[in-house]
Each structure stands twice: as C-alpha cells, then as structure tokens.
Amino acid sequence: ENVNQVHRTGYHFQPPRNWINDPNAPMYYKGLYHLFYQYNPKGAVWGNIVWAHSVSKDLINWESLEPALYPSKWFDNYGCWSGSATILPNGEPVIFYTGIADKNNSQIQNYAVPANLSDPYLREWVKPDDNPIVNPDVSVNGSAFRDPTTAWWADGHWRILIGSRRNHVGVAYLYRSRDLKKWAKTKHPLHSVQRTGMWECPDFFPVSSFGENGLDPSVNGQNVKHALKVSLDLTRYEYYTLGTYDNKKEKYFPDEGLVDGWAGLRLDYGNFYASKTFFDPSTNRRILWGWVNESDAVQQDTNKGWAGILSIPRKVWLDPSGKQLLQWPVVELEKLRGHNVQLSNQKLNQGDHVQVKGITVAQADVDVTFSFPSLDKAEPFDPKWAKLDALDVCAQKGSKAPGGLGPFGLLTLASENLEEFTPVFFKVFKAVDKHKVLLCSDARSSSLGEGLYKPSFAGFVDVDLTDKKLSLRSLIDHSVVESFGAGGRTAITSRVYPTIAVFEKAHLYVFNNGSETITVENLNAWSMNLPVMNVPIKNRGGE
Ligand code: DQQ
Q1: For atom 7 of ligand 1, which residue has the closest CA?
Q2: Looking at the structure, do residues 310 and 425 belong to the same domain, yes or no?
Q3: CATH code of the domain in which 510 resides
Q4: CA end-to-end span of the chain, whole Å?
C-alpha cells in the first residue's frame, strides 16, 4: 500500500490521479449516464483544464474514456471551462461550455456535438467552426462570463443562463435562440443580486410541487416551482432560492421570505461547490452532483498526486412545504452495502459514547434515528446567533461541552483515545416561538495533521419535532464524511485528513453530551464495497 493513498476515497467519484473540480454536463444517453468534469491531466493543482469523461450504467460504477473536450481551437485554446448538456427533442445531446480564448482570460461560449450519435459512449466530440455562439457584448465583463446552463424551451425560444458579475452584483444573464446557434441577450438578466460577486455555475431547474419526481428542464406552469442555485467564488460556497419563473416577462421571482444572498439556503453547508443537476428520464429523477473541494494542504495534494472528489449523486426534490429542497443519496448506492451491524434501543446518558463495531467504519454507510423523551432541556437560543453563520454557533458550542438536548450524534473517523474525531451531531435550542435544530459536522478535532482547513461546518434543520426524533445518515469514506440530517433536509460534507484514525484504526461511536437522555432507536451501519472507479474502457467497439 502506497502511504500517500491512505486518504483516497473508496466509493466516491474520483479519477486515478490528478486534480479534479466541477462536474460538467451530467446526462443520460442511450442507457448510459455520462459525466464530464474539470480535470488537469498533468498534475494535482488546478490548470491545463480539459473535460474528462466517464460513463456508468448505475451512477456508482464508472468507466473512464478519453477527455471529451480539450483546448484545440482558437476559441478554447486557453481552457475548456464548465458547461452543461442539453438533450434536444430528437434525443441528440449538445454541450455548451466556456472557452478561454486568450491569455487575458477572455470568456466566450461554445458548443460541441457528438461525432457519432450511434456510439452510446459518445467518445468523440466535435466543435463546429461556427463557434463561438455567444460573445460578451460591451455591457458584459468579458472575464467574468461563464458556465452556461442546460438549455430549456420557453415561449418559442431556447434559453440558457450565463453566470457573471457587474462590479459587485452577481448576475445570471439570459440568452434566447431559435436554432441554438444564434443567441441574443434578453433585455434584463433573468436575475441579479447586489453584493454577491461573481455567480459561477448557475443552475436553474423546475421542481414539482408534489411528489419526488424530477421534471424535464422545459416544464413550467401550475404546480411547478423553479430553483436558482449560484456558486459564489468569493467564499467558495453556494446558495439557492425557490421561486416563480415567468416565461413571458423573462424573469425569475424568488419566493417571499427566502434569503436571496449570502445567508440563503444551501444544498450543502460544507465542502461542496460548482454543483449541477440533470434530469434522468430513465427514472424520472433530478440528480445533483457537487465538487467536494479539498481541505488538505496544497503541498499534500501534490505529494498525494490527487486533489478533489465528487459527492455521491443525490436525488433532489421539493419539500412538501415548498420552502426548501430535499436531497438523498441515489438508491443505487445501496448496492455497495456489505456487512451490516445494528443497534436498537440503546440509551445514551450524558457523557456516554458507545462504539459501533464489526464493519469497516472508515468506509461505511450509517443510518440512525435518535429519540428523546421531551424538548424541555433544550438550551435557549441566543438572539445574537440569528446574525451569525451556523458554523459560528457550532464553533461556540462544539461537541464536547455538556449541553441540554444535545450535542448528540456520531463520532466518525475517531481514534481509539479520541485524539482525532469528526463529530456529526445535533443540538436543539429553544427560540422565542419555536425550536431550532443545529446540525454540525465539526472538522476542528478531525486531525492532528498540520496545514489543514478544519471548519466547524453547520446548518440549521427546519424539521418538525413533534415525534421527538431526529435522523442522520452519514457516508464515511476515508477523507470525507457526507451527512444528511432529518431525511435530507440539511446536508453537510466535510473533507477530513486524520493521521491516526485511518483504515482499521478508525472507530465509530454514537455519543451524547447533553443532560437529556437520548435513545438510539435504530442504527444500521454497513461496510461499503468498492465500485469500479474510473477504470479505462478498452477495446470496446461502438455500433
Ligand atoms: N471552475 C471552472 C469555471 C467555473 C469554476 C474552471 C467554478 O468555469 O466558474 O475550472 O469552480
């Protein structure tokens, strides 16, 4: 075993080596899922960006192909940056992406089409000579103009968004076209927000008001809401709003009461960026991928020879309240579940930590439901915290200090004597008229290593506590802990680099440091098997 590889993930998406960032153009075509991603073929730092390409039958086992897009034309000679796929009504895919045209980072939008539509692997992509299809006009900042979305059809035109900024205003420009080649900017952007800075990788999609099915990008009307997600490059985090898309006015109106800015709703409160969804017509789901960026020291990235992974793909749908999205790891992941252990009716008094044994806890899937007899011991919610990021509340409270109702949850990737551990835990507070639930994934105690980024990631969970239960699912995979609170209401992903708690020296515990007794009603934990992860496809003929 190469010592540099102790932190490689087992079942998260990752190429064999080198740097990866944004997922690009996820799509389903002729029985295969295609995933492209920003990739440096030459090293473990960002640069030399091409579109690497992988295919899968199940979103879990991946085979790799040659890069689909790489600098080769005057309009993308300095980089092939992020973009999206659109499936046309005749079933043919087209990719829109950002080309970097010169040393000054000039950004223009291009398209590419498959060379051979009968090849389900879509190995070869052609960039026609009528590129670029969108140039920035004089009103647009040409070095902040990128990441075209999937196109949708509305009011007699195709539409795409392009992320941008004007001074400090984050902008999603809307373009329309009849033929997907000649594009015109609409009079007003689809949406813009003061003081949010550059909007990278916008994602705009319809969600159904009822049920869990996804919708084709062009669906709009009754019982449909739209989600607009943007990635803020100033802090490397994302937020989204839900709202109404008016085809005729060519405008998006976020719902009243939602925060449209830095403190907005987030798909994930941890290491998660440049995310993108696609509609999977084979299962009627909308599926989300995110780039799980690094927290290791840059020099370590180079020493290891790799940096970056992708999240486990997640199904996304609208919460019946209409106030947020819900997310859950795609069901196909469960095929990797191996040996299982369970706990049930396990009482946790203040100070208890009980070990979960018998599985490979450094590469595991854990699903647990906690219950408590009452909410009486919830600590008061300090009104001052309303102005703070949840991460700061987590930092003040932590997992170790005794509390009322919580902290309780999991200690993941823990060394035997708890020199290292990544706690994923709840704390329930009492605010003036309601309870507030904090979910925290606190990397501060995750490693004795140096030069690491170890934030106390956290998010609030908008959950009904009348049944006095809270559930948690954590996907633990060597250097990542991807957690879903209360059935996917709040997700937090942490990259962590323990020095002791690796492989069989990693332990898993359930714990409670609150004065209210917690019951582990039911815990299921599985060892996770290894999928096929980006093994090259060799000698496979097309049709
Ligand atoms: N990454 C790409 C850009 C995008 C950024 C370049 C987001 O297209 O804006 O690798 O991580």
Answers
A1: 274
A2: no
A3: 2.60.120.560
A4: 40
Please work out whether the CB of residue 293 comes within 6 Å of at least one atom of ligand 1: no
Measuring CA to CA, which residue among 303, 308, 435 is closest to residue 46?
308
* Count of domains for the chain: 2
Taking the whole predicted model, whether its pTM rises above 0.80 is answered as yes
The DSSP code for 90 is T
Residue whose tokens read 């795409």: 160
Q: Which atom of ligand 1 is nearest to the CA of 98?
A: 8
C-alpha of residue 331 to centroid of ligand 1, in Å: 29
Complex ipTM tops 0.95: yes
Rounded to 5°, angle at Cα 32 from 46 and 91 = 100
Cα-to-centroid distance, 472 and ligand 1 (Å): 32
3-state DSSP assignment of residue 159: strand
Which helix H or strand E contains 391, and what residues bound it? helix 390-397
Is 378 in the same domain as 280?
no
Structural domain including 522 reads 338-528
Q: Is the CB of 22 under 6 A from ligand 1?
A: yes
Q: Determine if ligand 1 sits within 6 Å of the CB of residue 201.
A: yes
Ligand 1 pocket test target in 19, 22, 165, 293 with most atoms within 8 Å of CB: 22
Query: Is 283 a domain residue?
Result: yes
Which of residues 274, 303, 331 is at a domain's end?
331
pLDDT block averages, 10 residues each, the chain of length 543: 74 97 98 98 97 98 98 97 98 98 96 97 98 97 98 97 97 98 98 98 98 98 97 94 97 97 97 98 98 93 95 98 98 98 98 98 98 98 94 96 98 98 98 95 97 97 97 98 98 98 98 98 98 84 45
CA-CA distance, 271 to 495, in Å (whole number)? 7
The catalytic residue positions are 22
Q: Kindly give the number of the ligand 1 atom that is closest to the alpha carbon of 231.
A: 7
Taking the centre of ligand 1 as the mean of its atom positions, its distance from the CA of residue 83, in whole angstroms, is: 9
**Do 306 and 373 belong to one domain?**
no
**Residue 278 belongs to some domain of the structure:** yes
- Residue-wise pLDDT for 168-215, tens only, equals 999 999 999 999 999 999 999 999 999 999 999 999 999 999 999 999
Residue 180's nearest CA partner among 200, 153, 199 is 153
Atom of ligand 1 nearest to the CA of 22: 11
Mutation test residue for ligand 1: of 18, 45, 50, 146, the one with most atoms within 8 Å of CB: 146
> Over the stretch 71-91, which tens digit does the pLDDT of each residue have?
999 999 999 999 999 999 999
Q: Is ligand 1 within 6 A of the CB of residue 82?
A: yes
The DSSP result for 12-78, as a single string, is: SB--SSEEEEEEEEEEEETTEEEEEEEEETT-SSS-S-EEEEEEESSSSSEEEEEEEE-S-STTTTT
